[in-house]
Specification:
Chain lengths: 174, 174, 174
């Protein structure tokens, strides 16, 4: 994090967000959408929101231990999916991917313009105490275990449990 | 439904969700996103949420009578769109579609891991009394009539009416 | 606007929406999703909702001054992105784009069926006093300045400020 520009700098003094809550269902594995997930999450957490992120389907990529391509999964088919999904370092943008150049260009622009990169945003999420959850059902489908995820993942939840803890706040599906 | 794993099993005892509401604007026609719509909807309904789903644009696919490819629509152009959109049985995944293999692999993984498939989730939605609505404007654009949809569709609504009945709950755009 | 069909006609009498609020994070630059943003926004505003739209990433396309392809941006790389993103008149649909034919077909269908087109919806948004905001961080990344946007853009905001003004209403990520 250090000196990089975070979207909420010089706003912390303006906003009091105690007792406010933001919950995000992180479904997409696209680089730009995951960036949105963590930008919104860290932006809200930085001003005092309780932030809950529920990773499901392609979004589970963001919380995998192995961030490069890896054969994570219970059998050869889920392993293959795991390999193709890739992980945070190789995830494509939803538009203008150009065989992987898209995310590189974005990273370059973000560094150049002193904006926190996706990896930095994930680190910020951990530092800000954002609650990270993994979707039970998607883990079943993709053959993933809790041990496949980064240790910061707080719990494995079903949909209803997540919706329940999101009550009373703003909930987004990304 | 029967013995298959639903994301909310063994959670019903933990959560009391009376007077809670989940509303979903189902815009996407992608297989994985429609799965998310129905997983979230049935998961919430199973623990007592009032659930409202508003199908619009590509999402209207999910509630069409004819679930294979069919020429549904008022003129040749909307008929062509209807054919291309295809319906629930041929809808693609948003990533890794592989000319239709993606959804097949998903279905296989879901069956193998004893997770409810999309068709089963739609049946569950009906059984759980989820309120299904169709978007008036999108029907105009695509030349669709109420009779083109499954009889469980409760009403044809405008945007404002749907937002109004979503008030006081969580609303997601998928 | 004039005599075209808007999704909320003949609903204004049915719904009282004073003190209600709809906030949209407009992330996507796809033609169909931007249509959804403005359809939802104008639909809600027409019945009295306070409507706030926060344009970020690809969504910034919708509020650029130059609506055709243009080299807007701080350096050659962001200029190139600006050119590729194109602007409202050349933005693709998320499915069935057919090298640009998709949006044309949609426009045709919308005109033919007397539904407001995207440009008309943007005009309606201005007329209805919808609050348009641009995302500070995305502007940094893409090298955009406030002067690159239409004058109706009310302010440049960070994530936390937007979430804060969305409190107490429904918030959607599109």
């Amino acid at each position: 994090m250090k000196t990089r520009y975070l979207c909420t700098q010089n706003q912390t003094d303006k906003i009091m967000a105690e007792n406010k809550k933001l919950s995000i269902i992180a479904f997409s594995g696209d680089f730009d959408k995951l960036t949105a997930v963590f930008t919104l999450g860290t932006g809200a957490a930085a001003v005092g929101y309780e932030v809950n992120i529920f990773f499901t389907f392609w979004g589970l990529d963001a919380i995998k231990q192995k961030q490069g391509r890896s054969f994570t999964g219970g059998n050869w088919l889920t392993k293959l999916f795991g390999f193709m999904m890739g992980g945070l370092k190789v995830t494509p943008t939803s538009r203008f991917n150009f065989l992987g150049a898209g995310p590189k260009i974005f990273r370059y622009l973000m560094r150049k313009n002193n904006v926190a990169t996706l990896e930095e945003l994930v680190e910020a999420a951990k530092a800000l105490g954002i609650n990270l959850y993994a979707c039970e059902m998607a883990m079943h489908v993709l053959g993933l275990k809790k041990k496949d995820f980064i240790p910061e993942v707080k719990d494995v939840l079903g949909v209803a449990s997540f919706l329940n803890l999101s009550e009373g706040g703003q909930t987004l599906f990304i």
